[in-house]
Amino acid sequence: MGMKTFSLGILLIAFFIFLSNHSFSSDGSIWVESDGVAYMSEIDTPKEVMERAKRDAQSRAIEKAVGIFIKAHTLVSNSQLAEDLIYASVRGKIEKVEVVSEGWDQKDRNIYRVKLKSLVKPVYQERHEGIDIKLTLSKYELKEGDEVKIFYKANKDCYIYIFSIASDGSVTLLMPNSAMKDNFIKGEKTYTFPDDSSNIKLKAIFLPDYKGDIAEERIKIIATKKKEDLISLGFQEGIFQVYDARSTGMISDLVRKLNLLEPDEWTDATVVYRIKR
């Protein structure tokens, strides 16, 4: 089987910034409306049903606000993948609630409905005693054509996802790939990508239209406690998954999926390298 060579900067992907129509306060809080509903059984009191409906509406308000926080604050561009994914850990806290309407359903008197207007504040949770991952490269200053290897080690058993982000925002998912689908690693063991037995080689190559003498690029690794379907499918280039200009939702989708995890169930790390002519 012939040797496969992958360039760290072969793609050109354009992503757009999501512009929110919502108005945020100085601390990032936002007003949202939400509906709640509760059903009264034979053992419930009317007061219990009313409170349950309000809790349902508040839960929906937080869920709605978090979605807005993610869309409005995440730069939907591949270069954002190289930054700390702080918005993937955002949760919501209700600061104030106003009742828009409430009452028993006209058709079914066992159903209580409420509409709330809630002021929801973003809260960024810290990770405690979760996954910690170390990421290094064999070289950080490369000349065009140089090969480079990626070294990584986690403190716990986990699943890893390795991305290459070129200077123009181009992204390729290096691991897992069609040749190496198993992305599980053991804790406290150092891994190499690609390893010595692989026929994959990572080489530093300038993009065809790049005019500068130095290009700054990044490797990003995300580790999760459990196996997660983090990345929606783009198109296949060789053994790697890549994303073209039409895949504008990839970063938003990634952040949304990470947001569903608890902060201590995932982590990320980034290293920067430079290519010189």
Keyword list:
2 helices; single chain; eight-stranded mixed sheet; mainly beta; three-stranded antiparallel sheet; Immunoglobulin-like; disordered N terminus; 16 strands
Report what the structure shows.
By secondary structure, the chain is mainly beta. The protein folds into 2 domains: 4-14 and 128-276, Immunoglobulin-like (Sandwich); 30-124, 2-Layer Sandwich (Dodecin subunit-like), CATH 3.30.1660. It contains 2 helices and 16 strands. It has helices spanning 46-73, 250-259; strands spanning 4-7, 30-39, 90-104, 111-124, 133-137, 141-143, 150-154, 158-165, 171-175, 184-185, 191-193, 200-203, 214-224, 235-237, 240-242, 266-276. Strands 6, 8, 9, 10, 13, 14, 15 and 16 form an 8-stranded mixed beta sheet that branches. β8 and β9 (171-175) form a beta hairpin.
**Residue share in helices?**
10-25%
Global geometry: elongated
SS elements, strand count: 16
Largest sheet: 8 strands, mixed
CATH architecture of the largest domain: Sandwich
- Structural class by sheet pairing and helices: mainly beta
What is the domain tally?
2
Order of helices and strands: EEHEEEEEEEEEEEEEHE
Report how far apart the termini are: 31 Å
Rounded to the nearest angstrom, the radius of gyration is 23 Å
* CATH-defined topology of the largest domain: Immunoglobulin-like
Number of helical segments with 4 or more residues: 2
Runs in which pLDDT lies below 50 for 5 or more consecutive residues are: 1-21
CATH class of the largest domain: Mainly Beta
Q: Mean pLDDT, nearest integer? A: 80
